[in-house]
Amino acid sequence: xxxxxxxxxxxxxxxxxxxxxxxxxxxxxxxxxxxxxxxxxxxxxxxxxxxxxxxxxxxxxxxxxxxxxxxxxxxxxxxxxxxxxxxxxxxxxxxxxxxxxxxxxxxxxxxxxxxxxxxxxxxxxxxxxxxxxxxxxxxxxxxxxxxxxxxxxxxxxxxxxxxxxxxxxxxxxxxxxxxxxxxxxxxxxxxxxxxxxxxxxxxxxxxxxxxxxxxxxxxxxxxxxxxxxxxxxxxxxxxxxxxxxxxxxxxxxxxxxxxxxxxxxxxxxxxxxxxxxxxxxxxxxxxxxxxxxxxxxxxxxxxxxxxxxxxxxxxxxxxxxxxxxxxxxxxxxxxxxxxxxxxxxxxxxxxxxxxxxxxxxxxxxxxxxxxxxxxxxxxxxxxxxxxxxxxxxxxx
Length: 396
Description:
This protein is α/β, with parallel strands linked by helices. The chain has two domains: 45-232, Rossmann fold; 295-387, no CATH class. It has helices at 2-24, 46-51, 68-72, 93-104, 119-123, 204-207, 210-220, 234-240, 247-251, 253-276, 291-305, 308-327, 338-346, 350-362, 371-391; strands at 60-64, 80-88, 108-115, 126-129, 136-140, 151-153, 160-164, 170-176, 181-188, 191-196, 228-232. The strands form two sheets. The protein has a nine-stranded mixed β-sheet with strand order 1-11-2-3-10-9-8-5-6. It has a two-stranded antiparallel sheet with strand order 4-7. The chain crosses the membrane at residues 257-274.
């Protein structure tokens, strides 16, 4: 009985300490990208929905929580803008047909998303992410909106751009620091389709910044003249859908504390029960080296995914890290002069240095990469390692 009392006292003290710590800890910031108009968290769109009248004061606002087809079917709209801000906008073919009819009647559609889903093929557009450690800079092509200094963004906002567009049907409205388009327009009859490469510009986090709010306002200024705004909540709501069995517990703080308390008590019981029982000690098998098996599994996953560009970018990143650590090279701004630096620092021949530099410059700008191109990149990097090892090159 004395043993039970000791464990109960220790367990009670630990549980009490845990509950006190949980009660007094600050509420962590929720960085979930919901893009919902009701959410005041950093990646919600509460500010956009409640302050868009500052940009379009004459327009009335309504929400739509149903699919595009259901919202627009059998209704006549005039001078209306349909705004979609979501992580993914998987517009069906039926929805797209309805949107086209809607635009041809003199209305506008504004979509800010990372993933356009199936309509990418219809619009002949592809997106990519710029690799820039200094952050993203953007500006407009319209002289009335363009500023002398580019707009800068934090937390990766502004890094995505359109790597492929149908220039015969699109008008480029905004570009990044490298001149790559991130904001484009399609004309449909009397209306327009505006696409911006990501939704982060319209989140609470970005709109609380002076220049972030200015950039977002300028993009939305293209909707001037519309008498009504329809805010789509259908696609942003899909992002929040969850099938987690424990979602009810974690939704309510009281149930969450009860859940953790039950787990903690179970652990104490198991630890106490272990002390009371004499168990057979099993024979431990010697440790095996599973590194090769792990490499085979990872390699198989990448092979079946067939994402050659992703593999190439990772190989380049790892190789750049090797050059920085071994040869103290600056690899953040690669240009044609980098080949001479490689020759001087590593001692490789001119042909190999130029080939590697060409890969470093061209690969991040490609929308896709063939097997042959990936193999050539890999062979060039392997040749570099062989040459530097055989030459006995030392760091400077």
